[in-house]
Amino acid sequence: MSLLRVSLEQWQALVAVVQEGGYANASEKLYKSQPTLSYLIKKIEESLNVSLFTLVGRKSELTDVGKKLYFYAIRLLNLAQEVEHQAKDEQNEIESEIRLMVDEIYPISLLMSALSHFSALEFNTRIVLTRGILSGPLDALQAKRADIAITYKYPHDVLAEYLITVTRAPFAAPHHPLHHLGRPIREQDLLLERQIIVRDTNQIKSMDVGFLSPENAWTVDSLEMKLQMLIHGLGYAWMNEQFVKERQAALKMLPFAEKAIHEHSLYIAYRELGPAGLKLIQLLMDASV
C-alpha cells in the first residue's frame, strides 16, 4: 500500500470550509487559524495537482473536481469516525451484535419503543431480532442462539426478571356461530366448535397453556397465522387482547357467562451482557412499565 498524499486533517479542513461557508467560520469550528486552513487546502491542491476552488464574481466556489473530492472527503471522514467509534466500543467491551428473541405475545408497540430509544444511543451494535412462541424464546437462549429473550416461561438456569403481565381472552370473528347463540357462552359450548391453537416450537417439552382441545383443533405455527384463521371464521381461540388491538383485527371477544380473561406473566431472560445489552434490557423494562 502506497503512502497517502493527503492527510485526514487536510480533508477535514476542506469539508469544514465548504460546510461552514468560508474560512472564518471553519476556523472557529476546527480551532485552527485561517492561514492554517488555507495552507492545508493549498497542500491538497499541490499534492494532487488540482484546483479545488475558483472565483465566480467575488465568491469562491468549488470546481467540478473540487465538488467530487469534497464528497469523497465526506465519505472518508465518516468512515474514519466509524473506525474510531468501533475502537472505542472494543475498548469498552461493547457488543458488536445482540440477538434478541421475543415472544409473539409481547406488544409490538412496547418493543418498537425500546428499540427506537436504543437506536438513538451511540452504540455501534447490530440488533438481530427474531420472534417465537411459548418455549421458543427460552429454548433459543438456553441453546445460546439468543442473548436476550422475552419469554412466556420463567427460566431457572439463567438470569431473569419479571417484565409485564399480558391477558388472554377467547376471540372469534363477528360472524362465528358462538356469537349468535343468543345467550352467554358456557365452556361446554366450546366443545362443539373448532379451536385454533399455536404449536409450541419445543415438541419434546411442549408447554400447555390451558383450554386446549386437540381432538377438535387446528394447529398453526405463529400468532399471525392464528389471527388470520380467526378473521376468516375458521374457529375460535384464546388471544392476547393487546395483540388483537394492535392489528386492528375484526374480531370480537366471546361473551362468556363467567370470567374468561386470564393473566400471564412475561419475563426477560439473559446471559452475561456488555453495556449495550444491559442498556437494551433497561429500555425494554422501562417501556413495559
Describe the protein in words.
- The chain is an alpha/beta fold and about 290 residues long.
- About 40% of the residues lie in helices and about 20% in strands.
- The protein contains 10 helices and 11 strands.
- The strands form 3 sheets. Strands 3, 4, 5, 6, 9, 10 and 11 form a 7-stranded mixed beta sheet that branches. The chain has a two-stranded antiparallel ribbon with strand order 1-2.
- A hairpin with a 2-residue loop joins strand 1 and strand 2.
- Helix 5 crosses helix 10.
- The longest helix is centred in the first third of the chain and has 28 residues, at about 65-90.
- The model is unreliable at about 205-210 (pLDDT under 50).
- Our measurement of the CA-to-CA distance between the termini, rounded to an integer number of angstroms, reads 55 Å
Counting copies of identical and different chains, the oligomeric state is: single chain
The count of domains is 3
Coarse structural class: alpha/beta
How would you characterize the largest beta sheet? Answer: 7 strands, mixed
Q: What would you call the shape?
A: elongated
The first-level CATH class name of the largest domain: Alpha Beta
Percent range for β-strand residues: 15-25%
Helical fraction equals 25-40%
Short key terms for the protein model shown above:
Arc Repressor Mutant, subunit A; D-Maltodextrin-Binding Protein, domain 2; two-stranded antiparallel ribbon; 3 domains; 7-stranded mixed sheet; elongated; alpha/beta; 289 residues
Summarize the structure.
The protein has helices at 8-19, 23-30, 34-48, 64-91, 108-119, 136-142, 187-190, 223-231, 241-246, 275-287, and strands at residues 53-56, 59-62, 97-103, 126-132, 148-151, 159-172, 195-198, 217-220, 237-240, 252-253, 262-270.
